[in-house]
Design brief:
11 helices, Beta-Lactamase, rod-shaped, 5-stranded mixed beta sheet, 14 strands
Length: 417
């Protein structure tokens, strides 16, 4: 299995793990939230129903009563339409040897035969209660019962006020609330899962980019070293087979070794620059003078310069100038005589009269990175771009109308004095 497939598999596993962990945590939270909300809703509906029963019982207690002579008075109660027309069954039952029904609904909603025993319990205990039950027709009901007293005997209960209500509407409202809450929880859960998957992908982007950079650098290294290593192998095999003399082989090996060393140095420099914490060591120097020292000895390169003082890393700027010149010679197919180097205002411009830059290099422009191709890896230009970025500047590439290419290395204006 290749390193690339291993990296892809590891990223996929990590992505699945993060997504799965998020899904478990998110769904668990939604389930807990929904369960608590449903339970609280159930209690709220129950409290609402009990509050209505309590109001009806308390209102009946004040409007239907026993006077000082022990007579039951319900005239005021019968004039209160909110109680007469309410959906509740309101009873006032006086227990005894012969149970007396002082107040009863005209058309009861429930058929309950245990009201006499309930009234006895309320009168004897003088406590208010809430209970549930099922009538003779299998209809569920909820009861609130309180004791009522004579006007002149407040310590001895006389009868029980019993209010019955149908909980079906409350159950229906509660089910509707539960269904809506479940739908809302499902929607939030689905949105959360989508967001979690997106967050997992977003969180892994730097790692995926790091893997891609590593694979790119490995491919770049193999591409750059393949040529000189293959040439070295050919020379050693030729010398070993006696096809050429040791002196001839040695003379061929020396430039190949120098080329290999140069490639390794550039690869190491690119690796050092292509990290987030790369640092430069700036100092003030004359860019025009430094550029002139970078030209090959007795070079026919045309050189034009204006006095320019910059605050930059001179070692890296030397690499820039040499790479731009070598790129012009190596990839444009031109001679040194057709190359012109201009220096002014913190800028180094290299023009050539060759074939110009390939389309894939121009298309990527400021964001191009080295990649193995038929025309070379572009490692030199990638290094120049990184150095320009470290100095707050940029690298601009363009093809000239009359043929040839132009590369402009610009240092940030803030670094030019």
């Amino acid at each position: 299995m290749t390193s690339n497939s291993l990296s892809t598999t590891s990223l996929r596993r990590l992505y699945i793990l993060l997504s799965f962990a998020w899904a478990i945590l998110w769904i668990s939270g939604i389930v807990v939230f929904a369960s608590m909300a449903i339970q609280m809703g159930r209690e709220a509906f129950k409290i609402d129903l009990d509050s209505e029963l309590r109001v009806a019982a308390t209102s009946t207690y004040g409007l239907a009563y026993f006077d000082n002579d022990g007579q039951f008075i319900d005239e005021t109660f019968l004039k209160e339409p909110s109680l007469i027309e309410s959906p509740f069954d309101i009873w006032i039952v006086e227990p005894g040897d012969s149970t007396i029904i002082h107040l009863a609904p005209d058309e009861p909603h429930f058929r309950v035969n245990s009201l006499d025993q309930l009234a006895r319990n309320i009168v004897s205990s003088q406590e208010s209660i809430f209970i549930n039950g099922i009538d003779e027709n299998n209809h569920p009901y909820r009861i609130h019962a309180i004791a009522t007293y004579d006007e002149n005997e407040y310590e001895i209960a006389r009868a029980a006020i019993i209010v019955l209500a149908d909980p079906a509407p409350v159950f229906a409202a509660q089910r509707n609330f539960t269904h809506k809450l479940i739908l809302l929880a499902f929607t939030i859960g689905a949105v959360g899962l989508v967001v979690g998957v997106g967050l997992a992908r977003w969180a892994l982007r730097p790692l995926a980019a790091s893997f891609r950079e590593r694979e790119r650098f490995l491919a770049l290294t193999a591409h750059e070293l393949r040529g000189p290593v293959a040439a070295l192998q050919g020379v050693t095999e030729s010398a070993s087979a006696g096809d050429e003399s040791p002196d001839s082989a040695f003379n061929r090996i020396v430039p190949l070794v120098n080329r290999t060393v140069r490639i390794v140095d550039e690869l190491l420099l690119f690796a050092r620059l292509d990290v987030s914490n790369a640092r430069i060591e700036p100092e003030q120097f004359r860019l025009d003078l430094l550029s002139e020292t970078c030209l090959p000895e007795d070079s026919p390169i045309q050189f034009e310069a204006q006095e320019t003082v910059v605050n930059a890393d001179p070692r890296l700027v030397k690499v820039v100038i040499r790479n731009l010149i070598e790129n012009a010679v190596k990839h444009s197919g031109c001679t040194l005589e057709s190359i012109r180097v201009s220096v002014r205002d913190g800028m180094v411009q290299v023009d050539d009269a060759g074939q110009g830059f390939p389309d894939h290099i121009l298309a990527l422009d400021q964001e191009f990175s080295p990649a193995p191709s038929r025309d070379g890896s572009g490692l030199g230009l990638a290094i120049v771009r990184l150095i320009a970025q470290l100095h707050g500047g940029h690298l601009q590439l363009e093809n000239l109308p009359n043929g040839g290419g132009r590369a402009i290395f610009q240092i940030s204006r803030s670094r030019v004095s």
